[in-house]
Each structure stands twice: as structure tokens, then as C-alpha cells.
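name: query_chain
kind: protein
chains: 1
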Amino acid sequence: MTPDMAFECLFICRDPAVFSAMDGLLRDLSVCTNLCLSSSHALGMLAEGSTDLLVIDWEGDASSDLLQDIWKSGMKHKPTIVAISALDSDIRGAHVTLRKPITTESGTKSLKIAYSRMLMDHRLHARYALMLSVRATDDNNRSIALTVTNIGDGGIGLSVKQEVTIGQVLAFRLLLPGAKREIYIQARVLWTRQHGAAGCEFVRIPPVDLSILQDWLKSRARVKKPLIPM
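structure:
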């Protein structure tokens, strides 16, 4: 994602006609596009970690090898993949297959599917920094002072002075910045690090509180809006 919060695309293509057909559609979605002429150079560019969308003008074995390398790689953030192909079958390893010849209608439809997936992936993995001190209780009703350092759709980051263990469930109330009421959270410790850092997944949040959290997260997900209706 770019500094102005636009999704970032790496477009692997040698054909000017294909690039021209897709570039305008990507701009309509406010997606920033970087052109790459060779699949062999793409993996290094993807390793930088800022690519949200990979569009490949399919070239057979070279493109297939790239997809295999992507799925085998240890990259934390793997892009949404759109394959542009003249083949009748879907491309294995791609999330969306766009068949040639490309039309405005087919290109827009495929990219909207990819955009929805990127947006969902962004909301799922995005973490928003906090620095809120709360008091939690664990499985044994022990009181633990902790600081919530970040929060996202699936969990939270903590800083604790007392020892916590993997699998331990912590319960606490949290007042998100700008929210009108506290939300109740039960979270399970997934990992711990030195100096008191810990990561947790949500175990239980009451429906009303979950709605407050989701609305709060959406208000912080400031992705650059498309120029066309979605």
C-alpha cells in the first residue's frame, strides 16, 4: 500500500495493448500500478512487501513458476492475484482469471472481485496502534495489569509486566478512542516475547460490542476510495 493509502499493484506484462486495456481500469479503482516486464524480476519486487495486487499477463511456464514461488515463500503478506489468460480454464494459484480478449466489462468485473478481496484482506490484517491501560482477569480470576498496544479484526497486542502464558484467556473492558461505551473482550494468548509483549486472538466479544469494534475499525481503514461505484 502506498503512503496515501492506495492499494498497490505489480503488473507483469510485455504487451502494450494488454497493459493499456487494464491500466485505466486500475486507475478507476484508485490502484497505483508498477509495471514489470519479466516474471523473473517480480519475486524480488514482491519481497518488499508493499504489493497488494499482482496482475499477470500469462506466459506459461514462467508465470506458473512465479505463482509456485509466491505460495511457497515465507512472505507474510501475499497479494491478491489476477491472471490474464487466453486459456479456457482457470489458472491454478490465481484468485481471479480474466480471459482474453479483455473488454471494459470483463476487466472491470474481474478487478472489482480482486478489489473486494484486497479490502477484506486489509481489514483482516490491519493493526491500529493504541496505548490503553486496563485491568484484566485470567482463567483463575487473577487480576493482571496490562496495556493494549494495538487492535485489529482478529486480535490484539499487549504489553504486560506480569507473566502470561500461551493459551491463557484474559477478560477485560476496553474504551476505544472516540467510542461512547466500553466493549467487553475475552482474548486468548497466542504468543509471548521478551520485555512483556504478547499477541492474542479474540475468543468472545458480545454481539453489540463486536458491532462497536467493527464500526471503529472501519472508520480507521482509510483506504483511498475508487473513482467508480463498487
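note: The radius of gyration is 21 Å.
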